[in-house]
Design brief:
The protein has helices at residues 10-20, 35-43, 58-62, 78-87, 102-115, 129-139, 170-186, 204-207, 279-282, 284-298, 308-327, 333-340, and strands at 2-6, 27-31, 51-54, 68-71, 92-95, 119-122, 146-154, 190-198, 213-220, 225-231, 239-246, 249-253, 331-332. The protein is α/β, with parallel strands linked by helices. Helix 5 (102-115) packs antiparallel against helix 11 (308-327), helix 6 crosses helix 7 and helix 7 (170-186) crosses helix 11 (308-327).
């Protein structure tokens, strides 16, 4: 099949290599707002299984007769590109989020539904072996009844100052992964949140109305309590974990030999010699697996494993957390949903 890739930045370049070496892909056409960067990325794929070429515009890719499209552009372009791909009749994979606000998300979802095209969102933790094992334990009752979940997303260093004003904020940009994976692992919905945040690092976060560290307490529809903690400052390495505690014990995703953790106990685990440096290293296999799944979706071999409605539900939780942080009080997700005119959410897969 012939695949179009829109966006050749850090994650786009990674996806380019994955797609060009996939046995189902015969040709990869790439485009970027910086045509020179697109040509550079295409040039690095000369040894790949599929042929690769750069085109000078997104429109050129959409008109090139590709069978599917992968969107890895800057966030503010996602909604428009999803709409354009849907109107072109193309199955589409898009990195999260659909948009940084609910209206933009809904506009894209309405057009996808109208056109009847497939849309898969990039929540790669669903394809990570550890998270999958935790989900299986929860769904089969291996942990007994689940009462507490602790989720952590800690970046080793903050992003560039220029990124923060358009990122959507810490809850929408980082914690949204935790919100999605909580729904996927448990099969439950978040009904209310109580969130807060602080700034102890670079001033550009507060200048953009954002925070560099945040915490949120979520209550699920069965009463399970979930704490989500995120920070832009974890110099020891990239730390992403989920601890699920039930009546029979606790199971942890993300606790391995490279997790940047160490014990204060004399005989406890020491700091790893090679901690995870970033998200691409930590979730390398998951990123490859989710594109493999998308190519199956594009060929009609399976339903989408992470739908646009799943992305909407995670965004509504993020919106509720940001509102709670600003108000200093609990917020019900359904109140945010009603205020945004979002209607009922989609199925949890």
């Amino acid at each position: 099949m012939r695949v179009g890739l829109l966006g050749t930045g850090r994650i786009g370049s990674f996806h380019a290599r994955t797609l060009a070496t996939h046995p189902a892909v015969t040709e990869l056409l790439v485009a970027d707002t910086d045509p020179a960067r697109a040509h550079d990325v295409a040039g690095t794929l000369a040894d790949a299984r599929a042929s690769a070429a750069a085109l000078d515009s997104v429109e050129a890719v959409l008109r090139a007769g590709v069978d599917a499209v992968v969107i890895a552009t800057a966030t503010d372009a996602h909604s428009d590109l999803i709409i354009r791909a849907a109107r072109a009749g193309l199955p589409t994979y898009c990195e999260k989020p659909i948009a940084t606000d609910v209206p933009g998300t809904l506009a894209a979802l309405r057009e996808v539904e109208r056109c009847g095209t497939a849309l898969q969102l990039g929540f790669q933790r669903r394809f990570d072996a550890g998270y999958g094992a935790v989900r299986e334990a929860v769904r089969t009752g291996g942990l007994g009844f689940v009462h507490t979940i602790r989720a952590v997303t800690a970046d080793p260093a903050p992003p560039p100052a220029s990124y923060v004003p358009t990122s959507g904020g810490l809850f929408r940009d980082c914690c949204v992964h935790d919100f999605d994976i909580v729904r996927w692992v448990t099969g439950r919905e978040v009904v209310s949140v109580f969130a807060t945040g602080s700034n102890l690092g670079e001033p550009f976060f507060s200048e953009a109305g954002d925070v560099d560290t945040a915490a949120a307490l979520l209550t699920l529809d069965d009463g399970t309590l979930v704490s989500c903690n995120a920070t832009r400052y974890n110099g020891a390495g990239y730390d992403v974990r989920m601890e699920v505690s039930g009546s029979r014990g606790t199971l942890v995703a993300g606790l391995d030999a490279r997790a940047p953790l160490y014990s204060a106990e004399p005989d406890g685990p020491k700091a790893p010699a090679d901690p995870w440096p970033d998200f691409l290293a930590r979730f390398h296999d998951a990123y490859v697996a989710e594109l493999d799944a998308f190519l199956d979706v594009a060929r009609g071999l399976r339903p989408t494993p992470c739908s646009g409605h799943d992305a909407l539900e995670a965004l509504l939780v993020a919106e509720a957390c940001e509102l709670s942080r600003r108000l200093g009080s609990p917020v019900r997700v359904d109140d945010v949903r009603a205020g945004a005119g979002a209607g009922a959410g989609g199925d949890v897969r």
